[in-house]
Design goal:
The protein contains one helix and three strands, in the order αβββ. It is α+β, with helices and mostly antiparallel strands. It has one domain. The chain has a three-stranded antiparallel beta sheet. The longest helix is centred in the N-terminal third of the chain and has 27 residues. The protein starts with 8 loop residues before the first helix and ends in an 11-residue tail after the last strand.
Length: 69
């Protein structure tokens, strides 16, 4: 991924603000999922993983019957 340099201090400040806001939103969504017994999914090196509410990491989607992708 190529990252372009930003031309102004304001652009850096805005980028930092939005990055912080989005990070907090994602963290909160993960907490809500755990509280409601739902898995959090993420991708590493092109492979999808699921973090179960108990912290276990699996590759099979726990919300499907195994027949759908």
């Amino acid at each position: 991924m190529r990252v372009e340099k930003l031309d102004s201090l304001t652009a850096y400040q805005n980028a930092s603000l939005y990055t912080n806001l989005f990070s907090k939103a994602v963290k909160r969504a993960k907490e809500i999922n755990r509280k409601n017994g739902l898995p959090n999914d993420f991708v590493r090196q092109g492979k999808r993983y699921y973090e179960l509410p108990n912290g276990e990491i699996v590759t099979q989607n726990p919300l499907t019957d195994g027949e759908t992708k």
